[in-house]
Every structure is written in C-alpha cells, then in structure tokens.
Amino acid sequence: MRSAFENGESPMVWDIVTGDETWIRQRDPRSANKRKVWCYDDEEPMPEVRPTDWVGKQMVATFFSKAGHLVTVPLEHGRTVTAQWYCEVCLPKVLQAWTRRRPNDQFRHLRLHQDNAPAHTAIRTTDFLASKSIRSLHHPPYSPDLAPADFFLFGYVKEELRGQEFASPEAAVAAYEDAVNKIPRNMWHAAFSN
Fold first, then answer.
1. What average pLDDT score do residues 23-50 get?
2. How far apart are CA 176 and CA 23, in angstroms?
3. Would you tell me how many other CB atoms lie within 10 Å of the CB of residue 5?
4. What confidence tens digit (pLDDT) does each residue in 18-28 have?
C-alpha cells in the first residue's frame, strides 16, 4: 500500500477517509501516573479510586481524512456497533459529509480505510460499499498501530478530556467533538504522514 501512495507523497492520500469507534465517558479520571504520590516507607499508600461501571458513556464513530475531521456519529445509548447500524446510520452520514466537502467528486476517488471489526467486514457492509462504488483499503489483521484513529486521534483527544466531568454522556460527546474540531490542520497531515 505504501508504494501505491508513494510513501504518502501521492495526491491520492487526500482521498483516504479513515475511522473507528470508541467509548466517550462522562468522567474519565486522571491517568495512573498522575494519581501516583510519594509515600515514606512507614506510610500507607493512598487508596486508588477507580471508575465504576455506572459512569455514563456513549460510543461514537469518528471519521477523518488528511484534510481534517469529517464527521462524528454517536450511537444510541447502550447500543453496540452492528452492520445494520453501520450501513443504515453511520456510513450514510460519512458519505454525506464527504459530498459536502467534495461536491463534484461523488465517491469516485473515495478510499475508505477501516479496521477488521465485524461490522466493518460484514457482507452487508461490503455490499453497501460496492453499491456506492467505494473502494476499501485493506487493513492487516492484528495491526491497530496502522489505524490513525487508534495511534493518533483517540489518545490525543481523550488526554485533552481527561480529568473533566460532564453532566451527561451527550455532554461528554459534545466536548469530544469540540476537542476534535480544535485539532490543528498540521496534526491531521502528520497523522497520515506517519
């Protein structure tokens, strides 16, 4: 794939849209390293407070390209990603956002990069993409390090939100989208160069 895109120098890199799903929590405590405190040998360490299962959370699917954020699609509360949701709700919003960004292109140049999650590789999904003449980029199995959403976007944005509390999962998703939209253009470019 690197040779097809001339190691990221080809203009075709601008045609790649990548995305994935992640959980956004209402309350995400500081990282373990930031919770550590120094204790004397004779002192008892402070108990560690861990997040409980009742903390509200919502799953979102976020798609972006080298040009920046394209769209974030929240799932209904408590739902999981299925091929039906992916084809009927998520991908149509991605295609709508692509059309707004490139109105004359249709889907002629669009190349969709997604990992090998069951909803992404289901027959229903491959049929949907084929019906729109959208090319999918192959993703090697067990390679999360090749997914820009995993090695760049989610970690960066969640670190920006870490330690904050939100009134509802929907408010957390709104803060997530706001943080995604504030990412500078050069960071989007660098994610695809890397």
1. 67
2. 10
3. 17
4. 899 999 988 86
CATH number at residue 162: 3.30.420.10
DSSP assignment letter at 15: G
> What's the pTM?
0.80
What rounded mean pLDDT belongs to the chain? Answer: 81
Residue 20: Cβ-neighbour burial (10 angstroms; 0-12, 13-18, 19+): buried
Distance CA 67, CA 101 (A): 10
Q: Is residue 36 part of a domain?
A: no
In angstroms, the first-to-last Cα distance of the chain is: 14
> Is 6 within the bounds of a domain?
no
- Count up the domains in the chain and report the number: 1
Q: Which domain holds residue 106?
A: 11-22+54-193
Alpha-carbon distances of 143 from 16, 47, 112, 146, rounded to whole Å: 18, 36, 17, 6
pLDDT (tens digit per residue) in 91-131 = 999 999 988 988 887 777 889 989 888 999 999 999 999 99
Q: Which residues, at least 6 apart from 188, have a Cβ–Cβ distance to it below 8 Å?
A: 64, 65, 66, 67, 68, 69
Q: Which residue has the higher pLDDT, 35 or 78?
A: 78
- More confident: 42 or 11: 42
What distance in Å separates the CA atoms of residue 157 and residue 30, rounded to the nearest whole number? 14
- Examine residue 3 and state whether it is found in any structural domain, yes or no: no
